[in-house]
């Protein structure tokens, strides 16, 4: 929810982490902004640039398979999914949003790797623009927090 109280994370030290990012190119101006905010926040938390692998795929439906390949490699402590799905005039929006979201969740559960899902699903471009920076940052924070948490469990 926009403006929701998120609380404070305890451990946001990313200096020892390897992070994989999969970015959908569809709606590139939005996803590029998501990626820029995400990368800046990862750097602020100490994640080293050489420990970040950032790849691009055509759209949100292709994000899960790239995440799966990254998870299978066992090289990463956490993954991040970036994309933007804007409602159109057809049912396609629901299909893409539901299937990409389910795929991202399944990969995380199947491989027991945290995945921060920042695939925006908005009614219009204005909503996406309003969320692109905060959600990019949030994805970085979630990835680092969850990677550190799973190392303790």
Itemize the secondary structure elements and their pairings.
Layout: E1 19-24, H1 28-44, E2 52-57, H2 63-73, E3 78-86, H3 92-111, E4 115-122, H4 125-152
Parallel strand pairs: 1-2, 1-3, 3-4
Helix pairs in contact: 1-4, 2-3
Rg: 15 Å
How many helix segments? 4
Strand order of the largest sheet: 2-1-3-4
Number of DSSP E strands: 4
Overall SS class:
alpha/beta
What's the helix-strand series?
EHEHEHEH
Helicity range: 40-55%
Termini separation comes to 28 Å
Mean pLDDT: 94
Strand percent estimate: 15-25%
Low-confidence stretches at least 5 residues in length (pLDDT < 50)?
Answer: none
The dominant shape is: globular
Biggest sheet character: 4 strands, parallel
Question: Can you put this structure into words, describing what you see?
Answer:
With 153 residues, this protein is an alpha/beta fold. The chain is built from four helices and four strands. It has a four-stranded parallel sheet, sandwiched between helices. Helix 2 runs parallel beside helix 3 (92-111). The longest helix is centred in the last third of the chain and has 28 residues, at 125-152.
Keywords:
globular; 153 residues; single chain; four-stranded parallel beta sheet
